[in-house]
Write the structure tokens for this entry.
Amino acid sequence: MLRVNLGEDLSADTLAAIARGDEIKLVFGRDAVARVKKARATVDAIVKKGAPVYGVNTGFGALAKEKISPEDTGTLQRNLLLSHAVGVGQDMPANAKRLSLILRIHSMCRGVSGVRPQLVRWFMDLVHSGWLPRVPEQGSVGACGDLAPLAHQALPVIGAGEMVSPEGKVMSTKVALKKIGMAPLELAAKEGIGLINGVQVSNAIGLVSWARMRDLSVTADIAGALSVEALMGSHAPFDKRVTAVRPHPGAIAASANLRTLLRKSGVKKAHAGCDRVQDPYSFRCMPQVHGAAKDALSYLGDVLVREANSATDNPLVFPAQGDSISAGNFHGHPIALPLDFAANALCAWGNISERRISTLIHPSMSGLPAFLTPKPGLSSGLMIPQVVAAALVSENKTHAHPASADTVTTSADQEDHVSMANFAARKLETALQNTERVLGIELYTSAQGREFHKELRAGEGAEAAYNFIRKNIPPLGSDRYMGPEFDRMTELVASGAIRRAVEKKVGKLRD
């Protein structure tokens, strides 16, 4: 079981494990408790003084000039959650919800939110129970934070809203809390706003996609290597001297992966003395294209991990100085831009994969039977899977349009620039699903291409990929119903199973 120390910096690997849904135990350590208590004491002192502080004893947004009496500060926080929980759409996926909730707790434990330790412990108990709030995924512009979804996420603490059991059953929070053996809390000053300022929902959705993209990055290299062997293509473009003179880190990593995957290749030996001078770009330029996408993935990971370890409240409470500052750490633009960039990286992996698929089924390009069927004409073989891949990569071009390029004023012009980080994260998730399907189609196609010169052993990693595919899906003889087989290939890609099977043979590959 993974221990997660709240309030202490969480590593990329820890966040990836939470994003995958690994079993965890949240730990509220002594130092974190002390920080939370100091910040809470500062809030109590502010309330006692009576000086206006946004969100503590004033209204919210355009209502910030409205003064709230000390006896109503708790009601103010409760009303904040109830009024803001108006999201729409489907319930968020469980892994993203759990991670979002953990990120929100983690942010409060940085010691600048001003909440009580018992609020932190309440939500820790909720996470450990396995139950989650129902959180509609639409309705955030990523400005003052993911206000609507985070309000839904926080509702259980006041006994409102709906919750979802570990088995996926939705019920009222009142009923759910009785089943868990938990009771609602009465919120104190600052605690409602402390639960909803920030883009933890957007960041969590992004982190779940990023964790899967780390596997996808390696799987793209595996698919490309198997396609090279199916084409009987040249290995020369992956010589380390090539990327040494244009040393982008991602290209170096992709080239190294390809060399590892293709070592001990019998196909390479058969290529000696042939008259093929150059392969198409989709084969020859894999280090450059896959590598650029790896660099975008690396940037995304750096930003999302940094954001996960950040404090995003408004106002921020600084116990050492005994004051608070109303500022803009809740704004989603720092993550919106990298999320949009990452969608373009998915286009790169998907587009080049679709081109390799097209080459392999084209007899004049590959030298293989048309559509990789032993009986062209009578059978259509892999004609239409390439069409499906083309449709998916075309759809991804729309998902690559930057959400962060847009803004719309909200809250009576008080919040007049927004990030659209939430939509950037959600469309990244959709683009990822499409790209996983495309790479599944390529792996299916390249494995079928190998059937026509199987006597030549492929490179070590490519051969391991081929053997793993064949354990799950038989070669294509005559036409058959392939839909479930392509779904299976997508599952193998999305779960990281392809990567794990190949790394078991060749060792760790670089994402």
